[in-house]
Design a protein that fits this description.
globular, 7 helices, four-stranded antiparallel β-sheet, alpha+beta
Length: about 220
């Protein structure tokens, strides 16, 4: 065997051995993380924060929070800013997170009133190998770039997209202009909170009025 052949095989063996070692270490780390859902939630949330996403916790725990999300470049939603509500189930990462838009967005696969997202990757093909950064850097941008009108949560948007693409694109831009500015992100959460408080106050007022009525 020539010296060149020997050195070539040695380099190949060294590379494969190094690759196998790193894959084994990653697998050990992965199994350790997977054994504790609470540790995995904490790690994924920290990773999301370190990726320069603005995260706002809803409660003292780490299972509900808001994330500020910018519309992807080269899409109809470019320049828009949305507050996304994320809820992590107890079984995360084995079960997918729930994701919803707080301020309004016009999209066939997003319910206009509730903001719920119809996202097959999250709801049906979620894997524990995915994390929260994937949701905001891959899944949501793909949803906005490639809407699927054949599986709608907003039937009007889906029908308009298939019937008149120009009118659909104009409506999307109108919603971005009206509801998805940076200042709308905070206002949307406050408005939703105020609506909930108002409903409770109205309910209480009705009870007091009924209780205070004199018997006939």
């Amino acid at each position: 065997m020539s010296e060149a052949t020997f050195l070539s095989r040695l380099r190949l063996w060294t590379t494969l051995s190094s690759l196998a070692f790193h894959q084994t270490q990653e697998k050990i780390k992965e199994n350790s993380i997977m054994s504790s859902p609470s540790k995995r939630r904490e790690m994924d949330l920290m990773k999301l924060m370190m990726s320069d996403y603005k995260v706002e916790m809803i409660n003292d725990g780490m299972q509900e929070f808001y994330v500020e999300f910018n519309g992807p470049k080269d899409s109809l939603y470019q320049g828009g800013v949305w507050k996304i509500r994320v809820e992590l189930p107890d079984a995360y990462p084995y079960k997918s997170p729930s994701v919803g838009f707080v301020n309004k967005i016009y999209h066939p696969n997003v319910d206009e009133m509730s903001g719920s997202v119809c996202l097959d990757v999250i709801n049906q093909t979620w894997s524990p190998m995915f994390d929260l950064v994937n949701v905001f850097e891959v899944f949501l941008p793909q949803l906005l770039l490639y809407p699927n009108p054949s599986d709608p949560l907003n039937g009007e948007a889906a029908a308009l997209m298939m019937r008149d693409r120009t009118a659909y694109e104009q409506r999307v831009k109108e919603y971005c202009e009206k509801y998805a500015k940076a200042e709308d992100v905070g206002a949307a959460a406050e408005e939703k909170s105020s609506d909930e408080e108002l409903s409770e106050d109205d309910y209480g007022s009705d009870d007091e009025a009924i209780a205070g009525q004199p018997d006939p």
